[in-house]
Amino acid sequence: MRPAEPMPSAGMAEVRIVAASPEAARRVAEVLRHRFPATEQRSYPAGHDGGTRLHITVDTTHTSEPDAAARPWLATSESAARDRPHADEV
User: Fold this and answer.
1) pLDDT tens across 3-58, in order?
2) What count of other Cβ atoms lies within 10 Å of the Cβ of residue 52?
3) What span, in angstroms and rounded, lies between the C-alpha atoms of 54 and 62?
4) pTM of the prediction?
5) Contact in structure between 36 and 59 (CB atoms under 8 Å)
6) Within 13 Å and on the Cβ side, how many CA atoms surround 63?
7) Concatenated DSSP letters for the chain?
8) pLDDT tens digits, residue range 69-82?
9) d(Cα 22, Cα 53) in Å, to the nearest integer?
10) Which of 27, 29, 5 lies closest to 15 in space, CA to CA?
11) What is the C-alpha to C-alpha distance for residues 17 and 60, in angstroms, rounded to an integer?
């Protein structure tokens, strides 16, 4: 079992993107950076088939599109997994 990773500081979210290609992962990271201030992305190989794992840290306390009338999907969504990690996560 891998040791638990430290939690990000309050208001920060550590995002991991796994995609079949580096370009697909970069496009998702670009959308996140458009909405939230973020750190530099870090990418790693993800498997033997050429996939990419990209990590990025976003600041959820500030958004680049302030719209009080819009309800953010993240605040209104529910996890289907009910706080369980994915099979490849600890």
Assistant:
1) 677 888 899 999 999 999 889 999 999 999 888 988 888 888 887 788 899 999 99
2) 19
3) 22
4) 0.62
5) yes
6) 11
7) -PPPPPPPPTTEEEEEEEESSHHHHHHHHHHHHHHS-BPPPEEEE-STTS-EEEEEEEETT--SS--TTSPPHHHH---TTTTPPPTT--
8) 455 555 655 555 55
9) 8
10) 29
11) 17
Instruction: Please report the pLDDT score of residue 18 as a whole number.
Output: 93
* Sequence letter at residue 48: H
| Tokens 């498997």, residue located | 47
Single-letter residue type at 74: L
Please check whether residue 14 is in contact with residue 54, taking contact to mean a CB–CB distance below 8 angstroms. no
Placement of tokens 């996560």 in the chain: 89
